[in-house]
Design brief:
single chain, alpha/beta, TIM Barrel, Elongation Factor Tu (Ef-tu), domain 3, 2 domains, 27% helix, globular
Length: 529
């Protein structure tokens, strides 16, 4: 592949699950952000109000950045009556585009709001140049490619579709099925994945149970598991027995690792992909800062010197995040055994979110605590403008409100500490404020058990193997046994929170929520019960 002499500048598109995450993503280098409304997107847990969305748009535009709103659910009849009000609301908010998946909604917007730029969501499952051309002919200005598209297919799509913008996911959670078109959540928890309320059933722990002919259940336990063997036999391959295995942590056969295309980022930039998208609207401000910072610096470094670009330094930053392990996803065309974490579903990383700067009070930093701090801990403040962190060891903590000094401090109730700029030895006060503006985040290293350290190392090795940096799975560490303690999923009618999630079948059908349904009709777009 030849590198363009005047490379097209790719957009770094970050998720914004709240106003603070939006601002953090932009501070750390996002060119654009995407946000969902609570009732007509695939994020029913969006914490934006209409006023906050408007503020977010003003914040982004004042800094020359773009913001897109998602309208990417698959509509039921009850949703259609909201569309006129939604269009009126969107015109007031003034985003730079709408992300749509439903063809009916797309044509409604083209007819009733022709001035709005329309992007086709990944939920529409565009996997071929023919589909992209079809959306282009209908008036789409950008098409988000399905996660299942391989890089080789993307090359052909770019060649045959040069006049429409293309967007590809490069980082974030992966779905074990087809870009979110999943029925597991509906079947197991009555939560509609395609209506924005996926229960992530693919990440639950499943036991192997046996039942005798007379109805007696046999639970497979550590004490009796060696007495049985269980196999699957596929209809057209008789005799090929596929063993079902489970250890003390359970079995997570559908648990996809997180996508990370940093090792292949140069390929996407050289191809001229218009937008590089990161998933994670439900993640923290720390996640927004870390991913935006790593990809911002990586993208800029490639444009500065594409021939000598290497991903190593940026990968090291991403490795510090809590993750399920990383995978190249469908980059090579199909998932391998390395793309799923069959052992467990919990995330692991060597660093924790320590907190964020909420204010500069003269030469004092007001630092909001996110994890417990103890005397002697080292904070690494992450500057938006450079990769090298600003390190500081603290031996005491001054409460920002009361002035009380203690040797340890815990998060909660907006608890903040006051840190004087004078304790930073290598930076002057004014320089420090420029280097670490309000909303800058900090991390701290955490002590991992042997089990979790082995798990973390195994996750990192697997990405090296997928990227071709390791040739044998023999180097992959094994996880030593320790009982997994996971968060139990909520099931049945009692799990409905009554907030009117449009993917919650209990809310829309159970008589007990009839009054709430009537109340919801009187609320404005984006207003929660």
């Amino acid at each position: 592949m030849t590198t363009p002499t005047k490379p097209h500048r790719a957009e770094l598109l970050m998720p914004a699950g709240s106003l603070s995450k939006l601002k953090t993503a932009i501070l750390y280098g996002a060119d654009a952000v995407y946000a969902g409304t609570p009732d007509l997107s695939l994020r029913t847990q969006s914490s934006f109000t209409l006023e906050e969305l408007s503020e977010g748009v003003r914040f982004a535009h004042a800094r020359g950045k773009r913001i897109y709103l998602t309208l990417n659910l698959f509509t039921h009849n009850r949703d259609i009556e909201k569309l006129p009000q939604f269009v009126e609301t969107v015109r007031k908010v003034g985003p730079d585009g709408l992300i749509v998946s439903d063809p009916g909604v797309f044509h409604y917007l083209k007819e009733n709001a022709p001035e709005l730029e329309l992007h086709v969501s990944t939920q529409a499952n565009a996997c071929s140049w023919l589909t992209v051309k079809s959306w282009q002919a209908q008036g789409a200005s950008l098409c988000v490619m399905a996660r299942e598209v391989s890089f080789a297919e993307l090359v052909e799509i770019r060649e045959k579709c040069p006049d429409i913008k293309l967007e590809a996911f490069v980082h974030g959670a992966m779905c074990m099925t087809y870009s979110g078109r999943c029925l597991l959540s509906n079947f197991l928890a009555e939560r509609g994945a395609n209506q924005g309320n996926c229960a992530q059933s693919c990440r639950w722990n499943y036991k192997v149970l046996a039942r005798t002919k007379d109805g007696l259940d046999v639970e497979i336990t550590p004490d009796n598991k060696d007495d049985y063997d269980f196999f699957l036999e596929e209809q057209y391959r008789p005799g090929e027995l596929m063993k079902i295995e489970e250890d003390e942590r359970g079995s997570y056969i559908m648990n996809a690792k997180d996508l990370c295309l940093m090792p292949k980022l140069d390929d996407y930039l050289a191809l001229g992909i218009d937008s590089l998208k990161i998933e994670g609207r439900n993640k923290s401000e720390y996640y927004a800062a870390m991913t935006a910072r790593a990809y911002r610096h990586a993208i800029d470094a490639w444009y500065d010197d594409p021939k000598n670009w290497k991903p190593d330094v940026y990968l090291r930053e991403l490795y510090t995040l809590q993750s399920r392990g990383y995978s190249l996803g469908f980059h090579e065309g199909r998932l391998t055994n390395l793309a799923h974490n069959y052992d467990r579903t919990d995330t692991v990383g060597g660093w924790l979110y320590a907190g964020a700067i909420t204010q500069w009070d003269g030469d004092d930093m007001i630092f909001l605590i996110r994890n417990p701090l103890r005397a002697g801990c080292v904070l690494e403040f992450l500057s938006p403008g450079r990769m090298e962190p600003v390190r500081l060891r603290l031996y005491a903590f001054e409460n920002a409100k009361t002035g009380e000094v203690t040797e340890k401090v815990a998060p909660g109730q907006g608890r903040s500490i006051r840190i004087s700029a004078s304790v930073f030895h290598n930076e002057e006060g004014e320089d420090l404020k420029t280097l670490l503006p309000v909303m800058s985040v900090a991390r701290m290293e955490t002590e991992l058990s042997e089990d979790r350290q082995t798990l973390l190392e195994g996750n990192l090795v697997s990405l090296d193997m997928e990227s071709g940096l390791r040739s044998s799975s023999e180097d992959r560490p094994t996880v030593k046994g320790r009982a997994h303690v996971g968060k139990a999923p909520t099931l049945g009618l009692d799990s409905c929170c009554g907030l009117g999630c449009n993917g919650c079948l209990m809310f829309w059908n159970d008589p007990k929520y009839e009054k709430a349904r009537e109340t919801l009709k009187t609320r404005k777009i984006g207003e929660m019960l």
